[in-house]
Amino acid sequence: MKALVTGITGFAGSHLAEYLLRQNVEVYGTVRSGSRLDNIRGIRQDIRLAECELRDPVSVDRLVKALRPDLIFHLGAQSSVPASWSAPLETIQNNIAGQINLMEAVRRHGLDCKMQIACSSEAYGAIWPHEAPIKETNPLRPLSPYAVSKVTQEFLGGQYFRSCGLHIVATRAFNHIGPRQSEKFVASSFARQIARIEKGDMPPVLRVGNLDAKRDFTDVRDVVRAYWLALEYGEPGEIYNIASGTCRPIREILQLLLASSRAVIQVEQDPGLLRPADAETLVGDSSKFYRRTGWKPEIPLTQSLKDLLDFWRAQP
Predict the structure, then answer these.
(1) Where do the DSSP E strands lie in 32-92?
(2) How far is residue 316's CA from residue 312's CA, in Å, rounded to a whole number?
(3) Distance between CA 78 and CA 7 in Å, rounded?
(4) Counting beta carbons within 10 angstroms of the beta carbon of residue 166, is it exposed (0 to 12), middle (13 to 18) or buried (19 or more)?
(5) Are 76 and 54 in contact (CB under 8 A)?
(6) How, if at all, do strands 248-249 and 214-215 pair?
(7) With left for phi above 0 and alpha for psi between -120 and 50, is residue 54 left, alpha or beta?
(8) Average model confidence (pLDDT) for the chain?
(9) Residue 84: pLDDT band by 50, 70, 90 thresholds?
(10) Structural contact between residues 108 and 51, judged by C-beta atoms closer than 8 angstroms
(11) Average pLDDT in the 156-165 region?
(12) What pLDDT does 271 receive?
């Protein structure tokens, strides 16, 4: 069985590749010219990489035609909410064009393959208190260009399922954390700053944004297992929440990381880290996915944070 992973060099993509190898799947991944391969260094000899610009329909068509994958895990995207405010048009173009090109290539060549679209809980956006925990049927009120791009990806997936018969399953993952996560994301930003302070590479002041926001955190290794199960057992055309069902304020994540630090650290809010609009609470109900696949998180938050902090401590 052959699996194509877009975004294989990224945070979730690299963990997914490791998981797929353990399932005895042949793993292929897309990379851009000059892509950093740090996250897949440990498995580089076990996977095959193809240079492919997802926004280029010719490049995507050539790859899909030659490879004819059985599974496609579409993780390649501009995945940062703050970055989407700085570059809204680029975010929309990148995230939508890449998916259209993949689906068009699958349709054009008549492939009998399954495709998972990695979407996001950010699609829910503004949530009223009585709506939590959030089910898949909740109204979507996106609050960022990134969230709008993810809603569009979902709608496009549904459209190609209904109009073209493609086997497409969309997953709405809530916040996921773990080793290799970019410092652009909140828990990883905290962990990186703590590690640098411990090494004496920066003053003992940790800069934060909104600590009152509440989020649902799941370990990335549990999330990629869910991606696999989504294609194994998920119903095509459906959307599934991937969530722990537990809501924690960002302040608690910071406190847990600080408690593991060997340094005395002062915390200061940085106005530049505050978003123009931010959902107050995002906690997911993944019971629909559990009923379909039996999936539930297995790795506790404390282990995820320990592994994340140790990852940054090991960086030069």
Answers:
(1) 48-51, 71-74
(2) 9
(3) 10
(4) buried
(5) yes
(6) antiparallel
(7) alpha
(8) 96
(9) very high
(10) no
(11) 98
(12) 86
Q: Report pLDDT for 273.
A: 83
Residue 228: Cβ within 10 Å count: 21
Q: Which tokens hold the place of 276? A: 């123009």
The pLDDT of residue 147 is: 97
Read off the amino acid at residue 100.
I
Q: Please give the DSSP secondary-structure letter assigned to residue 139.
A: P
CA torsion angle 149 152 158 163 (round to 10): -130
Who's near 243: CB < 8 A, 6+ residues apart? 121, 133, 173, 174, 216, 218, 283, 284, 285, 286
The pLDDT value given to residue 262: 86
Q: At what angle do helices 250-259 and 186-199 cross, to 10 degrees?
A: 30
φ/ψ of 229, rounded to 5, equals -65, -30
- pLDDT tens, position by position, 7-30: 999 999 999 999 999 999 999 999
End-to-end Cα spacing for the chain: 37
Token code pair at residue 119: 């979407």
